[in-house]
Each structure stands twice: as C-alpha cells, then as structure tokens.
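We both want to read discrete structure tokens more fluently, so let's practise on a single case. Would you write everything just below, so we can both look at the same thing?
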Amino acid sequence: MNKLVINHLDRVFVTSDAATIVKELEVVHPAAKMIVMASQQQENEFGDATNLVITFAGELLQQAGNLIIQGLHQSEVISGFQKAWDKCAELIEEMAIKTVENVRDLEAVIAALKPVVAAKKYGFEEVLTPLIAQACVQVLPRNPKNFNVDNVRVAKILGGGFMDTRVLRGVVLTRNVEGTITKVHNAKIAVFAGGIDASQTETKGTVLIHNADELKAYNRGEEEAMEKMIKEVADAGINVVVSGGAIGEMALHFIERYGMMVVKIQSKFELRRLCKAVGAIPMTRIGKPTAEEIGHCTKVAVEEVGSTVVTIFEQTEGEDSMIATLVVRAATQNMLDDVERAIDDATSAFKALCRDGRLLPGGGATEIELARRLALFGDSVPGLEQYAITKFGEALEVVPRTLAENAGLRATDIISSLYATHQNGNERHGIDIEGGCVGDMERLDVLDCLSVKANALRLASEATITVLRVDQIIMSKPAGGPKPPPQGARDEDQLDAHVRRRERRGGRGEGVRGCLW
C-alpha cells in the first residue's frame, strides 16, 4: 500500500518507497535515528530492501521488549540475537535456488528485476521491467562488476500515458537548441566547458575612438576574431557545438552561418554525462579541437514530446553508448517521481546482480524457512538464549504477514499454510498474492537477490543489538534559569510590570523605578 507523506515544506509524496518516506520525516528519537541510519546505509549500498531493514528491526525490538518484560536480561537477549543472526547468515547461503550466470541475458535479468519493480509500482512491472533491463544491458561495461547506476538516466515528461515510456541509447535534454538547425545526422560534436563569446580583459580598459572609421574598424576586428575561431571549429568537421555557458549573439550568428547546431547546457553534471555518452572531451578554449576531443553521435535532433521540447543525442544499435535514457510519461508529477524511484531501485538491484547473481525465493518463502530452521536451532541451544533465538525467528514472520495484509488475505491462515508447506519439504513456496494462496515462487518468477536480503537482515540485526546495548539516554539541553530581561528601550507598561515583580520579591519598588528610569 502507498503512503501519503507531507514534509515540512508542505510537499506531498504518494509512494511506498521506505527510503523516501524516512528521508522526508523528521525523526527525533535517538533510537529511531539509529534504525533510520541503518536503512539509509542499505539504500546507499544496494538501493533496495530499505523497508525490510526498518520493518524487521522494529519487529526485533518489539520481541526483545517482550523478553525483557518476561524477565530475561538484556545481555541474554543480545547474545541470543547474535547467535541467531550468525546461524541465519549460514542458512541463507544454502537457500539460493537460481543463479544469473550471464547478466547480458535479457530474459534472466527481466525475471530478476520484475519483483523489485512490482514492489514499487505493482501492475506496471510487465511494461517497465523490460525497458529497465534493456537500458541496463545497453550500458553494461566489459567487466559487469564495474556497472555504474548513474549511466541509466531518467527524463520525466509530464503528459501522455504510461505506455508511452521508451528507452533511448544516448542522452535526452529537456530543452531546445539555441539556433535554427534542429537535426543533424552523423554528428561530430565539440563540447566547450565555458561560454562562447568574445573574450574580455580581466582589468578595465578604455578605448579612445576619434571618428566613425575607427569605430567601424574596431567592430570589424572583433567580428573577424570571432569568425576566425568559429571557422577553425567548422573546418575540423564539427557540425554540433555544445556550450556549458552563455552564447553571445555574434558567436551564434557565425555558428549559424557555418551550418552548425548549437546546444547550451548549464548543468556541469549533464555536460559530463553528455561527454561520456558521445566520447568527447570538454575544452576550455574556443578553437580547433583535436581528434581526441571530438565526440561522435549518430543523430542529434529536436523532438516535441507532448508539450515539451527535448533534444536527443541518440546512438544506433551497432555503436557503444555509455548512457541510456528512459523517457518516462505519466499524467501527474507524483506518478513520474514514483516511477523514477522504481527505476533507481531496479538499476541498483541490477548492480547487485552483477556482483552476486544468486537468487532466493521471494514472497516470504525465505523468511518462513529461516524462521522454521531457527526454531529448531533454538531448541538445541541450552540456557535462556534459546528464547531470544526463537523470538528472532518469529520476528521474520513480519515479512509474510505484511505481504498477506497488503494483499487483503488472512495473515494467520497464510503463515500457518506456509509453515505446513515448508515442513513437507517445499522450501520454495511463498505467498501468491494474485491467487490468494501459497505457490511456488520459482515457477511464478518471484525471486530476491541474495546479497541484498542478507545485507538488509544484517543491518537490521546490528541496529537492534546496538539499541539493546544502551541502558540510558543522556541528552544535552540548554541551561535553564530565568530568561534575561529584553534589551533596548522600555515603555511605561514594561517598567511598571518590572517594578511589580521586584515588589513581590520583597524589593523596593521606588528605588527600582528610580534606578531604571
């Protein structure tokens, strides 16, 4: 289910992304801040399963509170949780049911990313997942472990329908060109880091002109210098000029005369991505570029998508492109933002898949199996720690319980069915939310990345143990005492009030009045 979040700036968010919800909330309690820090660490490392960190940590703390109420000491709960997590880390390594051997295999990647997208935008995973997988595979380097999530960009264009979303090899800029040329094929691109304009001196100078001929000669010399620089660029075969700053009218005139398209990009980050996409090197001087500084692109064109004019730097299928852009269409801005978050989570999951391709059964199957095995392990451990180990396993039931409640199912019946099914040896069975029953997760292609889930459980366990080790909170606050009297001139009412306060304390009012006056 989605949450409607209103932050301190009265901005409205409609999302189910736990990282966004926690980011926009103002968490004050120090113990809750530690859980939030653990979820942020999960978001930074893997970009997914932040909800699992917060939910599981909260359930562990609740189980720990029940144990302490029953008489167990904090040290026994901490020791039991630590042993339970160590055992859980061993068990989860044995539960992988599938491995993605080749991350360039589009079908295997789609099957692995579909549950990630469905967790954020349920119902749209059939459309969105193939586009995300295609974009990730397009920008995949020779060594898949070096995959960079920043190479998959999102261009959000308001209007249209969600089915109009597409993926392009290259960069999409949501702005128009500066000149009149709007389409170039087989583009040779020169990128200038600064503006394209006549150079100005660092110090102030005065030019003394005596007559009109000297004025014409001065202007002609400035024009000739600018034309010489633009001509050097054109003679190098450049037909697209990209500027990182302002473009002067004179420079724009000569660029148009030599038949070159001109694009202005004010963001230095977009300028770097464009250079990476076309293979160009940004220049700080205006002049003839070298062969290494020239970028290449199959087509640069201006298109109108809905009511938004965009400039597309597109590569063909046969050429290598370091950047892929998803052009997302939706009817509302909240929808666009939520789809962008789903794309970011899916690309982060693809990055984790490149490092470790092992997959676990989803739908709560992994958590129920871990809980079942931890219950057996707790029975074999002597001492009071076995209660903490058993409660650790019971805390894992929060995942299938939440899934069942969100799907409108009876959580108690579903969890009982899962335990019975797993007891019979069907370890891959989880919750089929569409069928409303227990089903085989491998057959339904509901799979989770092993490294993501293991790291989430580890962070939640460590955050919980850290909170349990605290027996007292000491907070530093400003010093107390009466507030100082207001500074500046005082009127008659303030003076009389001050006198009455002094009289109540036993002082001499007239003396105070005379002294203050």
Summary: The first helix runs from residue 18 to 24. The radius of gyration is 32 Å. The CA atoms of residues 339 and 445 lie 22 Å apart. The longest strand covers residues 295-305.
